[in-house]
């Protein structure tokens, strides 16, 4: 086993953007209005959210223009509530924009975001930590990987909604899962177990892999690979895994597609794991 290393997604950012613009070009009027797994958001709404993600990154990252929150943020839930309000307010305001305008704006913003990422030190400290991984400070490469997962999984939601071919090859999915699994120590932080307890996660199929969560005296530590022995083995397919981490599948459906050997009580925290800033106060998928 080894501590997970840097996830380098820089070579994928522009190709992912190009896939998105190509997808938009193929959408019909009906496609743009199609519902998605995101509650109350159409394909066009998700596209609007992706544009907002780009514009905020350029403003706050490249231009260092940051606006203080309009409400107190004192814990994870208040941060999630604030981000949900921020996201919805943008989507509501931009419902007056046409798909053509959204596509043109995305075409302008995407390459600029890619250029920004290529211009900074990937080992430097990111302006915003990756909160869902429990970090107070994160390197830029992790922030970049987080942003890649954001753009990839929302594009997947659009593809699912319109029946387009998914970006599920190992090239795309392997770095997604290598990033998402860093949410596992947070998901298990309240799970009590003796020191040395080990849980193996096997994500099968293209883009999958193996990771081990091991209990140290005061926390859980994530490793890449498998160790000598395990107290539980959790197995699912790579497609189900990324949907669990993004709240894109109900816990019931996820459980039906997931197998556990060994201590069954270790399954529930995995089904609640999140690699997005959201809560599981209910079992409905959210943006």
How does this model look, in words?
It is a single chain. With 287 residues, the protein is of the alpha+beta class. The protein has 2 domains: 10-167, Four Helix Bundle (Hemerythrin (Met), subunit A) (Up-down Bundle); 183-271, Nonspecific Lipid-transfer Protein, Chain A, CATH 3.30.1050. The protein is 47% helix and 10% strand. The chain has helices at 10-25, 29-32, 43-62, 76-93, 99-119, 140-162, 170-180, 184-187, 238-245, 251-256, 267-271; strands at 198-204, 209-215, 220-224, 232-237, 259-262. The chain has a 5-stranded mixed sheet with strand order 3-2-1-4-5. Helix 3 (43-62) packs across helix 4 and helix 3 (43-62) runs parallel beside helix 5. The radius of gyration is 19 Å and the shape is globular. Mean pLDDT is 93; it is low at 281-287.
What is this structure's SSE topology?
Layout: H1 10-25, H2 29-32, H3 43-62, H4 76-93, H5 99-119, H6 140-162, H7 170-180, H8 184-187, E1 198-204, E2 209-215, E3 220-224, E4 232-237, H9 238-245, H10 251-256, E5 259-262, H11 267-271
Parallel strand pairs: 1-4
Antiparallel strand pairs: 1-2, 2-3, 4-5
Helix pairs in contact: 1-5, 1-6, 3-4, 3-5, 3-6, 6-7, 7-9
């Amino acid at each position: 086993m080894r501590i997970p290393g840097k996830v380098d997604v820089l070579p994928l950012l522009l190709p992912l953007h190009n896939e998105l613009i190509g997808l938009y070009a193929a959408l019909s009027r009906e496609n743009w209005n199609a519902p998605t797994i995101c509650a109350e958001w159409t394909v066009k709404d998700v596209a609007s959210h992706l544009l907002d993600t780009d514009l905020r990154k350029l403003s706050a990252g490249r231009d260092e223009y940051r606006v203080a929150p309009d409400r107190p943020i004192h814990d994870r839930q208040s941060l999630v509530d604030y981000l949900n309000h921020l996201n919805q307010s943008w989507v509501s305001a931009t419902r007056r924009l046409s798909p053509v305008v959204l596509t043109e704006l995305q075409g302008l913003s995407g390459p600029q975001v890619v250029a920004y990422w290529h211009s900074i030190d990937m080992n430097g400290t990111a302006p915003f930590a990756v909160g869902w991984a429990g970090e107070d400070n994160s390197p830029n490469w992790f922030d970049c990987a987080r942003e890649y997962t954001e753009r990839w999984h929302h594009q997947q939601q659009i593809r699912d909604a319109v029946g387009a071919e998914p970006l599920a090859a190992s090239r795309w999915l392997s770095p997604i899962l290598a990033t998402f699994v860093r949410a596992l120590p947070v998901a298990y932080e309240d799970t009590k177990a003796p020191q040395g307890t080990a849980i193996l996660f096997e994500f099968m199929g293209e883009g999958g892999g193996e990771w081990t969560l091991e209990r140290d005296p005061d926390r859980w530590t994530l490793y890449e690979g498998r160790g000598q022995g395990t107290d539980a083995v959790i197995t699912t397919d790579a497609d189900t895994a990324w949907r669990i981490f993004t709240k894109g599948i109900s816990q019931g459906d996820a459980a039906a597609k997931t197998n556990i050997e060994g201590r069954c009580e270790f399954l529930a925290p995995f089904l609640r794991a999140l690699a997005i800033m959201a809560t599981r106060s209910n079992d409905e998928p959210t943006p």
